[in-house]
Amino acid sequence: MLTKADIELVKKTRKEIAANRTVPVVLCRKVPASVDPLTGDMIYDTTEEQVEALWRQYISKSPGTDDIRYVGGVVAEIGDAFVEFELTVDLSNVETIKNVETGELWRIRGVDKIGLGEPNRYYVLLGKVH
Question: pTM for the complete prediction?
Answer without folding.
Answer: 0.80
